[in-house]
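4.2 Preliminary Data

To establish feasibility before requesting continued support, the project team ran the inverse folding procedure on a target of 333 residues. The structure was first converted into the token representation described in Section 3, and no sequence information of any kind was made available to the design step. The complete token record follows.
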């Protein structure tokens, strides 16, 4: 009897123990619970983000980890500085090589030298310089975002760099608006003169007078200037759209979209800067007499006939048929 009681007690103990042992098994049935415990990789397979629980209204703060952030950080810290450095420094090197091999394009003197013709009126020059000034400051503050902590902070120290970067951020945000306005002004003012045509293809095939001594015919804007115009309009609008989405974060997209906007904004920005460096070179050091067009608004008549002969003929035709010229313009006769 006593033996039967012991066997009954042992059976009861086993019956109570087996469920307890079963409870320590992993959810997927694995014998070792730690072998299939919840880890980061498993969570990423279930959802592209790891969420937490918060009590504040900002729901985006609940995102603890999202893998695209690592990809963006890799681009921001590794790829972008290399891309930006190669594009901008590469353009400067190319312009320097062109200058020392081709030299400056000199003003060709003739009996018409000294006579002036109005090329851009005051509002056109205002729109250009407002946009250009904003672009320079936006470019410097943007380059500081990419290279500042690597190149500038070791020279001036972290406190001074933090102050400079903060003011650069303010300048970047507030000057973006007049820059975008200037782009719209130039689009309205000059789009009719920047429609590509057959004459532009001829200009390109002849190297635009940059690779030889011949100067192909051109209207008010040659093919090179038209390329700059459409670059400014296209890149300017793209930079404005992506910039607005970053100024007002999460208004139209989530954190992944914000990261994509930053990638697009920065890549367009460095290419934009390189293109404008070439434009600045041609409009100042590269070609004698070119700066006057946006300086005083008037250019030498001989210069205009060499570089924009078709446009000069149009202006002469207007002068011959009536007073269509702007105030202060000398007839091109």
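Position-by-position output of the design step:
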């Amino acid at each position: 009897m006593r033996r039967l009681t012991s066997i009954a007690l042992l059976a009861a103990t086993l019956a109570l123990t087996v469920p307890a042992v079963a409870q320590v098994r992993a959810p997927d049935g694995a014998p070792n619970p730690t072998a299939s415990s919840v880890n980061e990789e498993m969570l990423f397979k279930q959802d592209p983000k790891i969420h937490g629980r918060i009590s504040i209204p900002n729901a985006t703060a609940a995102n603890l980890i999202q893998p695209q952030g690592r990809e963006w950080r890799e681009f921001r810290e590794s790829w972008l500085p290399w891309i930006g450095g190669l594009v901008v420094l590469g353009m400067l090197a190319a312009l320097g090589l062109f200058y020392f091999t081709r030299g400056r394009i000199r003003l060709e003197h003739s009996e018409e030298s000294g006579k002036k013709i109005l090329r851009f009126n005051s509002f056109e020059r205002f729109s250009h310089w407002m946009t250009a000034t904003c672009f320079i400051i936006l470019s410097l503050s943007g380059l500081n975002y990419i290279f500042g902590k690597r190149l500038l902070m070791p020279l001036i120290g972290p406190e001074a760099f933090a102050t400079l970067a903060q003011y650069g951020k303010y300048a970047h945000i507030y000057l973006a608006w007049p820059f975008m306005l200037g782009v719209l002004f130039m689009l309205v003012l000059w789009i009719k003169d920047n429609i590509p045509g057959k004459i532009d293809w001829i200009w390109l095939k002849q190297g635009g007078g940059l690779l030889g001594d011949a100067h192909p015919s051109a209207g008010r804007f040659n093919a090179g200037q038209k390329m700059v115009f459409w670059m400014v309009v296209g890149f300017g609008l793209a930079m404005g759209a992506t910039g607005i989405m970053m100024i007002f974060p999460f208004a139209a997209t989530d954190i992944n979209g914000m990261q994509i906007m930053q990638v697009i904004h920065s890549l367009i920005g460095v290419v934009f800067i390189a293109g404008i460096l070439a434009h600045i070179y041609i409009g100042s050091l590269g070609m004698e007499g070119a700066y006057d067009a946006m300086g005083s608004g008037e250019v030498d008549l001989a210069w205009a006939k060499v570089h924009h002969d078709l446009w000069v003929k149009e202006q002469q035709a207007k002068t011959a048929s009536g007073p269509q010229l702007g105030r202060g313009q000398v007839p091109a006769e």
